[in-house]
Amino acid sequence: MIAEITWVHWTAFILAVILFLAMDLGLFHRKAHAVRFKEALLWTGIWIAVAMGFAWGLNALRGQEEALEFLTGYIVELSLSMDNVFVIALIFRYFQVPLAYQHRVLFWGIMGALVLRGSMIWAGAALVRQFEWTLIVFGAFLVFSGIKLLFAKEESVEPEKNILMRLARRFMPIAPSYDQQRFVTIVSGRRMFTPLVLVLIMVEATDLIFALDSIPAIFGITTKEFIVFTSNVFAILGLRSLYFALAGAIDYFRFLKFGLSLVLVFIGVKMLLLKFIHIATPVSLGVIGTIILCSIGLSLVSRWIQIRKALKWKAISGKEVD
Predict the structure, then answer these.
(1) 125, 106, 105: which is closest to 117 by C-alpha?
(2) Predicted structure pTM score
(3) Is the pLDDT of residue 251 over 70?
(4) pLDDT exceeds 60 at position 320
(5) Got the DSSP string for 8-55?
(6) How confident is the model at residue 308 (pLDDT cuts 50, 70, 90)?
(7) Is the dihedral of CA 104, 106, 111, 116 positive or negative?
(8) Buried b / exposed e across 42-62, counting CB within 10 Å, b at 16+?
(9) With 0-12 CB in 10 A as exposed, 13-18 as middle and 19+ as buried, what is 318?
(10) 65 or 248, which is more confident
(11) Cα dihedral 66→294→40→197 (10° resolution)
(12) Which of 20-29, 107-116, 261-270, 274-283 is the least confident region?
């Protein structure tokens, strides 16, 4: 018998997330330190395992169909988050944020993202319930976003052109340098915000931009609010560890953007054809998973070939090659 999702399930899930975050900041990352690759990989595995455990529980509670919808949505959101990871890396590089302070920025950035995306999901679900044609608008937007992403230029960060940054610099007293991982400091007896606040604003603004693609995309998988919300939350929770695991390997994923554009176009077309063709969740999961795995595989093979050629050229010429 399929159990009904009630406020008890929503409350239990939100409290569990708050507990996880409290343990993360108060226990595992109480002291600022640079998160290395092995630690990041471990935490990435933990968050994926927790998400899979949730899918197993959802299967028992609501059946296989919703469990597959959750998995598909989780994969889509996590994949789109990988592109977000690379932009965050550029932000940290632009502001020269020390490795030891980056986790604290990402923690509060994710707290803001949870609230922001929760509000967007609630608004999106209300629109879909009230106006079913909203799905067609979402679908057309995703097709446009996918094509735009395909031909987009290389990612860059230009804080000076961000209106939120300009407002922050104008109305907020910003200290000239960092004060460990603090967001507020005292300079000459005056309370000021540290540059970490500017970094946090940029991270939040970046997530807002990516959410404009990812939220409509998840509604292309399912319109069930609980599935939409939980798959988004698990993807966001894994974003920090994913960042520390992948930020130094941007060059290894040159075809990922192409794969993500295909995923957005596929989901968009699926939404546009919803009235005429029903694509089963297992089929969607298979198509999306194949696209992502192929784009990652091609990227790794391409990078391996580049390295082989560089090493061969170095052996022949005796010159250093980047």
Answers:
(1) 125
(2) 0.83
(3) no
(4) no
(5) HHHHHHHHHHHHHHHHIIIIITSS-----HHHHHHHHHHHHHHHHHHH
(6) confident
(7) positive
(8) ebbeebbeebeebbeebbeeb
(9) exposed
(10) 65
(11) -80
(12) 20-29
CA distance 119 to 110: 14
**Helix, strand, or coil (residue 322):** coil
Question: What single DSSP character describes residue 252?
Answer: G
Spatial CB neighbours of 137, under 8 Å, sequence gap ≥ 6:
none
Q: Give the rounded distance of the alpha carbon of 219 from its chain centre.
A: 16
Coil, helix or strand for 185? strand
Q: Please determine, for residue 154, whether its predicted confidence score (pLDDT) is greater than 70.
A: no
How far is the CA of 203 from the CAs of 15, 86, 98, 113, in angstroms? 25, 11, 16, 9
Both tokens of 140, joined, read: 């057309």
Check: CB of residue 261 under 8 Å from CB of residue 146. Answer: yes
Long-range contacts of 94-101 (CB under 8 A, 24+ apart): 94/157, 94/159, 95/159, 95/195, 95/198, 95/199, 95/202, 97/178, 97/196, 97/199, 98/34, 98/178, 99/34, 99/35, 100/32, 100/33, 100/34, 100/181, 101/32, 101/178, 101/180, 101/181, 101/196
pLDDT band of residue 51 (cuts 50, 70, 90) is very high
Q: For residue 213, give the nearest of 143, 134, 308, 294 by alpha carbon.
A: 143
Query: Residue 127 class from Cβ within 10 Å (0-12 exposed, 13-18 middle, 19+ buried)?
Result: middle
Checking if the pLDDT of 14 tops 70, the result is: yes
Residue 93: the pLDDT is: 84
Q: How far apart are CA 114 and CA 296, in angstroms?
A: 27
Distance CA(93)–CA(303), nearest Å, equals 22
